[in-house]
Amino acid sequence: MRLNRRNNVFLVSLILLLAAVKVSGQEKYPDRPITIVAPFPPGGVADLTARPVAAALEKVLKNPVVVVNKTGAAGAVGMSFVANSKPDGYNLLMALSSISIIPEADKLFDRKPAYTMDQLIPIALISADPTIFVVNASRPWKSVKEFVDDAKKRPGEISYSSSGVYGTLHMAMEMLIQGAGIQLKHVPYSGGGPALTALLGGHVDTLASGPAVVIPHIKAGKLRPLASWGAKRVASLPDVATFKELGYDIEFYIWAGLFAPRGTSPAVMKTIREAVKQAVNSVEFKTAMEKIETPIAYLDAPEFQKFWDKDAKMLADAIKRIGKIEIPEAK
Amino acid sequence: MADTLHNLYIGFSVALAPQVLLYAFVGCVVGTLVGVLPGIGPLAGISLLLPASFGLDATSAIVLLAGIYYGAMYGGSTTSILMRIPGEAASVMTCIDGYEMTRRGRAGPALAIAAIGSYIAGTVSVVGLMLLAPPLASFALRFGPPEYFALLLLGLLVLAYMSGGSMLKSLAMAALGLLLGMIGIDPMTGFFRFSYGLVELGDGIGVVPVAVGLFGLSEILLTAGQPTAPEVKKPKLKDLLPSRQEWRDSLWPIGRGTVLGFLIGIIPGSAHIISSFVSYAVERRLAKDPERFGHGAIEGVAGPESANNSATSGAFVPMLALGIPSGPIPAVMIAAMMVHGISPGPLLITQQPELFWGFIASMYVGNVVLLILNLPLVGIFVNVLRVPYPLLYPAILLFCVLGVYAVNGSAVDIGIMAAMGALGYLLRKFDFETAPVVLGLILAPMIEMSLRQSLAMSSGNYAIFVNRPIASVMLLIGLALLLLSLMPFLMKSIDWRHRLGINTANEGEKL
Fold first, then answer.
1. Which residue of B86, B91, B304, B473 is most buried, as measured by CB atoms within 10 A?
2. Chain B positions in Cβ-Cβ contact with residue A189 (cut-off 8 Å)
3. Cis, bond preceding A216 (omega within 30 deg of 0)
4. Do A76 and B199 touch (CB under 8 A)?
5. Is residue A97 scored above 90 in pLDDT?
């Protein structure tokens, strides 16, 4: 057959047709690299948790799993990206508890939400850091009782930093404020790192923080932990009581979980869930999480859904209580 | 002293081990590439290689990532000087005088001085890091929101010295930059400001798309818009080395840039980007003939380039001495350390001497490697200019788009870059300076945040700025600088009266 123009066109069309048929045919999931979107900058909790998960999943699925950071708007950019993407199982989300906060905050401000929680379905809960209440070591309070008493004596004077307005650390402190009936001064920073730096420098008095970043400073004597927001005591801080033990009915975790867009087929979901279950139980994953001092708290999808709903309701209540932050008049 | 030398000995024995040396080299090469490519900056480079570093041992991993960071500061000057396209935000100031030098055929000396200044600054600042890390870090911790506000206000006042030409035009551009910096989520209340429904604008307009667009794209558009094609320069070998005069002129700027950059870098926060801006302004102020700036003054290359290199060492001070993430890049490195089971904190230096001293030693080695890499490359890079413009500039445009997209994976950034490119073209046609826009854009959100944090801390009482010693000292310096810059106007009016007085006296005599 001569390679003239007409034959060329025919051959090319044939090849394209075959390719199209191949693509639209039934393929086994997964056959392309899977992306886990971490909606926070590298080095943060979402990122640090996502990477061991990706590495372990890769081994289980024998398929590349890549972590991509899509940052912005306290996580909203990455979260809405996955929520609005095609539910084919190739775009997953590693989100923190702030996933429940952002849509509520959007409602508060009467703006079109970047995404709604219905757009995402849970795959599994990976970790749940109990938040720790730390104070600068130079401050006098040695127990929660001393702190609360002092706060009641001078309302609005003791300060705390946070990773941002309506962020996870802010929410945790709000629960303490509500539960203990005290008033504190909030100084927001942009991120957990700056918030911790401010506490270390003595520019604020207290902070609610995930354990991993504060434990070295506690050991060095620069920070003092007073209590934790978990249901059980933190393993590496056995002398630190939980708020529940001290009589406050508050619990807060900075948890990290895997999500997929709603509409992902049940078959694909089953594959992912099984793979995650295996990945979380692997030795490498356990060692990796130990190194970053993050306890594994694995929950499969149905239990995770219940956990998520309960957590989301708690956070929604807290946000409604906080309401819109009014800008105080300068004296 | 003996202690330090002994520790250095340990450090070098770690750093010169073949594996660590290899990773330092890889880091430096990747860093240089990342710096040369417009848009993509050290943070993106480090994030890309972070997973690869998990499989290495701790020292190699840190050395690799750090190499990318300071390597990018070497590479960033290349495109800035050759094509007026900033390799990353910190290289914006080098574009101004560096490119002018290229136009005068002095591209080689500019690149050489940039490399050498970066080397001196890098090495000297590592000495500072090594000897002074703990006390400097404690000092840096005392920088709270009021001090930060005062420092940033100083940075804004420095604008007055940054550009020649009409002061009014520079201030207008700075105002534009400040306004652009207001876009984003209000840090204290959570409102989305000026985002027009685009979630991606929640963090504001990124510095990288603006810098690349305003400087790089506008340059491409301007060159394309010239009626005749500019002739391609063919540099000769002897033109590649700086002249004795240029050497002499660069020494003090390099020294000043080193100190300035290091001090600004220690302060936690992203202030190290402004180190090159401040250095440029200082050099301009201290020069005997400041009109040369903007037309190819070597000091305008030597100072900023040294400053941004020593700022990277400065950024490591709080990270290593206290374990606090003093910016996004140290935060990633802390994460890398944590993944290897090393908890950064105040005890790091004493508990992990091999890591700390190995790191210090590898920075010495890395700077030497980069100098050796970059100097001969000067000849190669300069020859890039021989490529005819119709081929060169579309390729550069492609790299700009790729680089800017690679930072966030966001198409909105490309749109911003394009819009800024068009704006930059118009601004330069009308003879406006574009550097103040970038500075305003960087400073606005930080100034606003620290002002409101300070007021939150003091419950609305403005006296907080006066009550804290560091903040009040810096505000006084700022006031002094402001008055100094107004002096020419005051002098002119006095001068006018004097002249009139003399004339009147003369006329009186004549009469």
1. B304
2. 453
3. no
4. yes
5. no
Report d(CA A47, CA A68) in Å as an integer: 9
- Chain A partners within 8 Å of B332 (Cβ): 41-43
Q: In 3D, which of B17, B441, B19 has the Cα closest to residue B270?
A: B441
> Following DSSP, what letter does each residue of A60-112 receive, concatenated?
HHTS-EEEEE---GGGHHHHHHHHTS-SSSSEEEEEEGGGGHHHHHHHHTT--
Identify the CA nearest to A159 among candidates B454, B451, B269: B454
Name the average pLDDT for chain A.
Answer: 83
Residues A185, B51: C-beta atoms closer than 8 Å: no
Query: Which residues between 219 and 248 in chain A have a beta carbon less than 8 angstroms from any beta carbon of chain B?
Result: 219-220, 222
Collect all residues of chain B within an 8 Å Cβ-Cβ radius of residue A42.
Answer: 43, 46-47, 50, 331-332, 335
- CA B374 to chain centroid: 19
- What is the rounded distance in angstroms from the CA atom of residue A228 to the CA atom of residue A234? 8
User: Is B169:B431 a contact under the CB 8 Å cutoff?
Assistant: yes
Q: Distance between CA atoms of A215 and A234, rounded to whole angstroms?
A: 11
A203 vs B145, B199, B459: nearest CB: B145
Contact residues, A window 8-47, toward B, CB-based 8 Å cutoff: 41-44, 47
Q: What gap in Å lies between CA A274 and CA A55, rounded to an integer?
A: 15
Residue B54, amino acid: F
Q: Could you tell me the residue ranges of all domains in chain B?
A: 2-467
The DSSP code sequence of A141-173 is: --SHHHHHHHHHHSTTTSEEEESSTTSHHHHHH
Per-residue pLDDT for A328 more than 60?
A: no
Which residue is associated with the tokens 């903040």?
Answer: B471
Partner-chain contact B190 A197, CB within 8 Å: no
- Three-class secondary structure of residue B437 per DSSP: helix
Beta carbons of A201 and B187 less than 8 Å apart: no
Name A184's Cβ contacts closer than 8 Å, sequence gap at least 6: A151, A156, A158, A159, A160, A173, A177, A206
Domain with CATH 3.40.190.150 in chain A: 34-129+253-321
Tokens encoding A21: 């048929």
Number of H helices, E strands in chain A: 11, 11
Residue A217 and residue B122: Cα distance in Å, rounded? 29
Residues of B in contact with A111 (CB under 8 A): 192
**Partner B contacted by A84 (CB < 8 A):** no
Residue A134 has pLDDT above 90, yes or no: yes
Å between B50 CA and nearest CA of chain A: 9
State the pairing for strand pair A120-130/A132-136: unpaired
User: Touching check for A286 and chain B: CB below 8 Å?
Assistant: no
Which amino acid makes up residue A203? H
For the full predicted model, state whether its pTM sits above 0.90: no
Interchain pair A190, B187: CB under 8 A: yes
Per CATH, domain A34-129+253-321 is 3.40.190.150:
yes
CATH superfamily of A132-251: Periplasmic binding protein-like II (3.40.190.10)
Cα dihedral sign, A288-A292-A297-A301:
negative
Beta carbons of B326 and A197 less than 8 Å apart:
yes
Interface of B with A in 364-423 (CB under 8 A): 408-410
The series of mean pLDDT values per 10 residues for chain B, 511 residues long, is: 78 83 89 84 81 82 88 85 83 87 84 90 89 82 87 79 74 90 81 78 84 88 78 62 83 92 83 82 84 83 91 86 80 82 79 84 87 81 78 87 82 91 92 86 88 87 86 86 74 68 52 44
Cα A203 to Cα A201: distance, rounded to the nearest angstrom: 6
pLDDT the model gives residue A258: 92
Best B56, B141, B199, B451 member to test A by mutation, with max A CBs in 10 Å, is: B199
